[in-house]
């Protein structure tokens, strides 16, 4: 059984122009010890998916369908109190800005101790302080920083503190949403190397979200590519590097410099993402797709799962699947 199974997840926002699904039937799974990446252009629903899993959706957002199972337990059905037992202990989250994770008026020491004491019963404050020191060591942070306030640390150090906090209760899944985007390249590299090293040591899984596709392909075991609220393709890192199947993934890969290949002119993807309040019928990528077929305008591409991963594109649809989708759409 996979550690996390997301099936047909649907998340809706209310907006002045009417409700829209920012996540519309997304499915993927994360194995134990795996780093799974979510890629796609801004607004495709990566963060909303992550927040839905971690129950961090606020205000106008709600899950309107689908399932999120961890170790077989349906998380969407848990009460807030039951979910609290999962948060930090089994699922923790690292956001882009460390200041969104840290309390600016509390010393680092107090925040780490609070994180430990909040979820562990029968542990003394002295033990929690000792553990806080160990967490600082794990994240390669000098222990004297325990006595500092967040604003007294550099951005990179703050993000290391957040990673240390996320590890405090040894969760099985850490959701990282753009964890290094706000940092310079050198600091970013140090933190990414640390995350990979800690993952090897502790064996947790990571749901990793970034705009930086080359970085994603460097560290993720598998990558899911979202487009306009739907999953376009899921493939192992090696498969993606050897050549993606979905025309959207191909376009996305051509928009970034290659890690290893020859230097080529970078191409963007012409056009823009569709309006989610009134999405087009059929394939949502069809207006930007260089290979669009007549069927793409009317029939939603079936999800095809096989040895190469998952792809949702009519170019790969077997005839019987196409017939089924046409029948369902008519
Ligand atoms: N709080 C909100 N209220 C209304 N709409 C929202 C809210 N948050 C996100 N959205 C909309 O939901 C869609 C998905 O946004 P989301 O942030 O999940 O995408 P993303 O792929 O993570 O983008 P980015 O990479 O820019 O963070 C977008 O159309 C966005 O404008």
TrEMBL record:
Chief location: membrane
Record localization: Cell membrane
Keywords: ATP-binding, Cell inner membrane, Cell membrane, Membrane, Nucleotide-binding, Translocase, Transport
GO biological process, one term: peptide transport
Record-annotated ABC transporter domain positions: 6-253
Xref: InterPro entries: AAA+_ATPase (IPR003593), ABC_Ni/Peptide_Import (IPR050388), ABC_transporter-like_ATP-bd (IPR003439), ABC_transporter-like_CS (IPR017871), Oligopep_ABC_C (IPR013563), P-loop_NTPase (IPR027417)
UniProt topology in membrane: Peripheral membrane protein
Molecular-function annotations in GO: ATP binding; ATP hydrolysis activity
One Pfam family it belongs to: oligo_HPY
Any one GO CC term of the record: plasma membrane
Keyword Oxidoreductase: no
Coiled coil: none
UniProt keyword annotation of Membrane present: yes
Entries under NCBIfam families matching the protein: oligo_HPY
Protein family per UniProt: Belongs to the ABC transporter superfamily.
Official protein name in the record: ABC transporter ATP-binding protein
